[in-house]
Amino acid sequence: MPEHxxxxxxxxxxxxxxxxxxxxxxxxxxxxVLLHGTTGSLGVWDAVVAHLGGAVRxxxxxxRGHGRSGRPxxxxxxxxxTADLLGLIAELDCGPAVVCGxxxxxxxxxxxAAREPAAVRGVVAxxxxxxxxxxVLDELEARVRGGDRVFASAEEVAGYIRGRYPLMPExxxxxxxxxxxxxxxGGYRALADPAAMVRTVEGLRRDFAEETRAVAVxxxxxxxxLSRLVSPDAFAATRRLRPDLRAxxxxxxxxxxxxxxxxxxxGLIREMVGAAP
Amino acid sequence: MPEHxxxxxxxxxxxxxxxxxxxxxxxxxxxxVLLHGTTGSLGVWDAVVAHLGGAVRxxxxxxRGHGRSGRPxxxxxxxxxTADLLGLIAELDCGPAVVCGxxxxxxxxxxxAAREPAAVRGVVAxxxxxxxxxxVLDELEARVRGGDRVFASAEEVAGYIRGRYPLMPExxxxxxxxxxxxxxxGGYRALADPAAMVRTVEGLRRDFAEETRAVAVxxxxxxxxLSRLVSPDAFAATRRLRPDLRAxxxxxxxxxxxxxxxxxxxGLIREMVGAAP
Lengths: 277, 277
Hints:
Rossmann fold; eight-stranded mixed beta sheet; two-stranded antiparallel ribbon
């Protein structure tokens, strides 16, 4: 069992463009940038980082609007998210980096790699592909809007997370509470900015099949076999678009791949670090 | 705003076959039997019952394995559930009755109507149809298994319900806690029997297209437009199977139709009560 740091002590802030991004930068060696999904935070990667050990440099980021990073009033499309990623790689001088992204983060990693292959040498894309059905995004939007509420206690937050992510291990639930929520007058509230989340889901509606077709660095496509986000049809269409890319389906796992299958994710990252040019 | 009774005072038990079924039997007039979905309870119908008023007789049931009804060790397929329904209608001498069922309850209503049209004069089938994809049932099974846990407090239960059913109104969340959970040593636990729930989902894997093709009484098919259970494909296939049946899609509603759109459901029941022969 790897240790789970669950500490906010080694977080730091990097200014990229006009936005302060909160990061955790650990280990040394080839760099891996870790991008969470919509409403997530850098803490979703703790178990993956523990499994990777110190032989790679892991840079886990709170993306804009999320966690302890800045939350500009606008700018939650693929352009702004990927500009943040590329700016961060430049600022930390850690390129070309492998990017491992979950959901929103997978979209951002693939788009950034298509635009600036000199900065991104490989992408592990967890449970997000082009061709996601409109109704799935409608449902995601409704669910994200439903997360904007005040919770009476940390216990209620934990209950909420258990209900929303039924396959998530207990240690990951605990980390979601610790990293993703803050106590304020009247109770607990998600750090992820509600308006930013709505705009982020709007941004996901612009498909990225074009960038997926164009991306010239290695990409590993990963789907949780129980995913409600990436349907078998969407995954199959992506594989037809890019039959040359490695594609992996993980049994017994739903959308929340980094937290539900951290050892497998660490293995895929390690392989990408070894394989990418 | 209708009143929400949220009282356990007027529940009573009816013995059907070898099983004690807990029911709430209200109002008088043409009978409507209300069947909840997997892991639910008769309390999911409170708002629908309030909207219906007293001009119909509503019989809301905790189906076997659920709520305060008996939980035999086995017998959670369509045969046993529909035998309970038909036995209950006979026992209460309320047939031929309209049946309004949600999810599991919709399956049970359609199958019972196909088998015994003399007892069931019409069905309102909420967000469950034939042709549901295997992967959707895999995901449902994983989620149902995840609900088998002890909660530290009622607040944590409420949080869990809010996370699991993000579009559910607060009054319905409160009722899910009041009707569906019990305090035991160490915390709160769902009344729905974990082993029975797993067997129930297994039973849902047997498709009921045959009964849907055969059913000869009026059926209204209802789908929540944001449903994750009934895909547009499954709904379309059911409509092709039975183009003569009324089909309704409710915008902004996901799978939990009785709690999210009680007024619409009451209207559809009223129309079925009026239309059914």
